[in-house]
Amino acid sequence: xxxxxxxxxxxNLHKYLSxxxxxxxxxxxxxxxxxxxxxxxTQRSDEELQQWVTDxxxxxxxTPDYFRTDDPVALQHLIEGLFLGIQQKKRDLYRxxxxxxxxxxxxxxxxxxxxxxxxxxxxxxxxxxTTESVDSVEDLLAAESPIWHxxxxxxxxxxxxxxxxxxxxxxxxxxxxxAILLEEMKQHWTHLFCIxxxxx
Length: 200
Description:
By secondary structure, the chain is an all-alpha fold. It has 6 helices and no strands. It has one domain.
């Protein structure tokens, strides 16, 4: 008797899992190479990069939505944080393609954050201690990685740390996916073996 569609899918599942596993292995290799390239470029150790990951996590917790202050350093951190937050939300927006409600929510948050960024930039530029003004919101967002004039070491800017953070998080997800695929392949091969015992 011909096997039904579900049985055929189960029998061919090993091909799909194998393909996905190979893709995951290749992507993991590429991300590891990216991280090594960043280490070489910035001349940082594994421990220092891990500290950057911790810094970004702390930034996500500590960055306020809005505040008024005459502290230029606090405003600099706020401006960088809001900029990176908007960039991240834009990337999230591109990934969400089938949920109109979620896309609307992200767009609303982007508009709100742009207003906060505008206010933070205005506060900073109005400070009597400011010797070099920050560009407009539009000009900042048009740049993929703006160079902040207060960064004495661009390689250790929050933007660079966020880049490392994203790579490390991506690597962790890939390693987790690899483990899941291995477990699924193990279960599937066990299933096929059990079926084969009844085929004779």
